[in-house]
Amino acid sequence: MAAGLARLVAAGCQVIWQTGKPFYSEAVGFAAPYVMRGVKIFDFIKRMDLVFALADVVVSRAGALAISELSLTGHPSILVPSPNVTEDHQTKNAQALASRGAALLLPDAEAADRLIDEVLALVRDPARQESLRKHLLPLGRPNATSAIVNEVLALVRK
To answer: How do residues 6-60 score in pLDDT, each as one tens digit?
Structure first.
């Protein structure tokens, strides 16, 4: 990953990376040479909305919350489903978007070899970013919480 960060920095990219607690120390170690050059490492980001406000492209796992956030913001995304989840549901989530032209899917097993190339290709291709955004935004459900609450209340009243 250190070589990948070097390539991103050399290309003028800034990176905001949420590692999760288990990988934070390791990531900070190999990202240290790039911290003053636009790489920021966090174990957890509480205000992801602020990060989305800064992002042009997002690389993410493909859990339900990530998918719902991305579909609301419309960010062009490369989804790398975790292979360590029940019934491979993240791959199914990512496939649902990728099959509609709403995101790019990169299997975890291929990420080490291809991720940086995929990121740089997407960052350098505004037309592709716009196409992903155009296909992603209609999938968002900004009023999903209200709709679910209303359904639950209707069921309770029966």
So the answer is: 999 999 999 999 999 999 999 999 999 999 999 999 999 999 999 999 999 999 9
Say how far apart CA 98 and CA 62 lie, in whole Å.
Answer: 11
Domains present along the chain, CATH in parentheses: 1-45 (no CATH), 47-157 (3.40.50.2000)
